[in-house]
Amino acid sequence: MGSQLTTNGDALRLFFTDDIYLIGGEDVFSTEEVTLSESQPVIEAVQGSTATEIPVPKVMEEPREVPSFKFLGKNSRNILILVNDREHEVSDEKGRELLRKIVKSVNLSANDFALLNYANYTGTSYAQLQQHFSSVLIFVFGVTPEQLQMKAYPQNSIVMEENVRLIFSSELKSLEEDPNGKKVLWASLKQLGL
Question: Superfamily assignment of 79-192 in CATH?
Fold first, then answer.
């Protein structure tokens, strides 16, 4: 009788119905012996009269779950506005008035966007926000790209991350008192064409 060892992919598909993933570029069909450390768990598989040690793969860490977000607005146009204020729901009165002007300048209503206070969700990444909100445009006030686990971007300019336009700016209270920052932001808002 011939060897029962096979590397034929079609034959192996008959026996292995679950998905198999190649991790770290290892050669799956290698004939080299595997050396196990004492701390690595093994499973014994009996083949005829000989036992073979098979290493058990380490379980990869699950990605962080997307938190349940409490936000204002209906997000009908998939536009996210992130603010960062630990003391207020959105900002102080001057900051809220500035935000109203910004929203009005780009012809948005509360139905069009989701307004989220990042201070309540510190540590949430851009990927988690995108998974929940599926945004095409994000206004970010007082949250840095690094906090969202992104590369650095300039402030008050339109930047692209995949197919999403983002504008990072300082916190609304600070922006209200920064005429130069507001001027650059207004110029960027005009380019949005909403």
Answer: Uracil-DNA glycosylase-like domain (3.40.470.10)
